[in-house]
Design goal:
Two copies of one chain form a homodimer. By secondary structure, chain A is of the alpha+beta class. Chain A folds into two domains: 179 residues, NADH Oxidase (3-Layer(aba) Sandwich); 51 residues, no CATH class. In chain A, 49% of the residues lie in helices and 13% in strands. Chain A has twelve helices and five strands. In chain A, strands 1-2-4-3 form a four-stranded antiparallel beta sheet, with helices on both faces. At the A-B interface, α1, α2, β1, α5 and α6 of A face α1, α2, β1, α5 and α6 of B. Chains A, B: Belongs to the flavin oxidoreductase frp family. Chains A, B: One of its GO terms (molecular function) is oxidoreductase activity. Chains A, B: Pfam families: Nitroreductase (PF00881).
Chain lengths: 249, 249
């Protein structure tokens, strides 16, 4: 079991085969057993199966082909709308229109998304996360009719794998772990920890294709340049506020 | 396998039994196979095993007894420090000092935390999330010596279960799922979806103990009142900025 999770990989290409509704519900119900802050379950999941609706979502995900080719697209949302409505209906005064409550709901949504990904993979399905969800949250919210206090946090495309790609590399675990306190990285440590990653044939190909000097420049200049990150920062933070989560003074 | 994940529960009390270092590393290495944005792995994990250090962390987690009684405490951090150092060392210009990059790193850290929780549970360990991590991030960062661009996002206490508590309730899956678009909740739907939760003996006990009229008021008045949420909002957002993730103008 553990070994299968160690062998897991992201699946972007799917067979033309639907996911049975009963199976999907079973997987979702299992995922909803993921830990949640104070057992509030301040998240919602929007299921997109209709081709027409996948095509509406695709541009918000920069037309990654996985969106329109997956049988199921799941948008995981931070959701305080339902909980606030429940409070108001019970003459309880909700104080959740703030940044920390947004963070709480986002954490809930992400833990559930990852639990869904795991149970889907264990069941022979493949998944792909779309990081574009927070970049284009306002567009996605409009397409999915998300009300105040609901914010899309991540998206999973799900389907039966068309093929199993090679597993990609990870940093050595020593790069990630710190014992008792954070030990900051010396230049030598950075060099050693990224050495294998920099020298993989696949990564060398990206450097060449993008006419860069090294892999780091592929990230900073091509994959997530400053101007994109700054634009998406403004879009997302403005949207958090628009949806009702006020920033502190 | 799926059925064991459906039966999972949070474990707060542990046997007085250490976790073998080789096992812990194996679980962490498996967790680091969780999906990560652009395979950047912008997270770090600080392992606390020393009793003295657990006692230092405990007040930041409001002295929840699970912190000092667990053999292992793991603090999962959003970490762009390592990646930025790698970029700078390669004459690549990092543009990650912004809110969206913080969000990316926080997502990475949370997916890894949940993957760790799952592999630990599958291996017979029990875990408890500490939502206090984002409330008292500055204190935790000081204790763990977290540098610029590193922010604690969540904490897991881990150990062998001392007992297996009853599984707590979840909302019916219909409360969480939306097909094709978000269907907002009518007052009748809210009443129906929360009915079972409101009427559980355990939840009725909380109402009585706290001298409240109903369960919603236990949340709004006792568990997360407005003034706490607003204080923690300010503390956390100020800390995000202090650690180098600028807010948009």
């Amino acid at each position: 079991m553990i070994s299968s999770l160690k062998e897991r990989r992201t699946i972007r290409k799917y067979l033309n085969k639907d996911i049975d509704e009963q199976l999907l519900n079973e997987l979702l119900e299992t995922a909803f057993r993921a830990p949640t802050t104070q057992n509030m379950q301040v998240y919602s999941v929007v299921i997109t199966r209709e081709q027409e609706n996948k095509e509406k979502l695709a541009p918000a995900h920069f037309n990654q082909p996985t969106v329109t080719s997956a049988p199921v697209v799941l948008t995981f949302c931070a959701d305080f709308n339902r909980f606030i409505k429940w409070c108001e209906q019970n003459h309880a005064e909700p104080g959740y229109d703030n940044f920390q409550s947004f963070v709480t709901a986002a954490i809930d949504a992400l833990l559930v998304a990852q639990q869904f990904c795991t149970v889907a993979e264990i069941s022979g399905l493949g998944c792909c996360y779309l990081g574009t969800t927070t970049y284009n949250a306002p567009q996605i919210a409009e397409i999915l009719h998300l009300p105040k206090f609901v914010i899309p946090i991540t998206t999973l495309t799900v389907g039966y794998p068309a093929d199993i790609p090679a597993q990609i590399e990870r940093l050595p675990i020593g790069a990630i772990l710190h014992h008792e306190a954070y030990q900051d990285y010396t230049p030598e440590a950075i060099h050693r920890l990224y050495f294998e990653k920099e020298n993989l044939a696949e990564n060398k190909k990206y450097i060449e294709e993008n006419h860069k000097e090294n892999l780091a420049q592929v990230f900073t200049d091509v994959r997530s340049p400053r101007k994109d990150n700054e634009l998406f920062s403004k879009t997302f933070l403005d949207f958090i506020v628009k949806q009702g989560f006020r920033l502190p003074d």
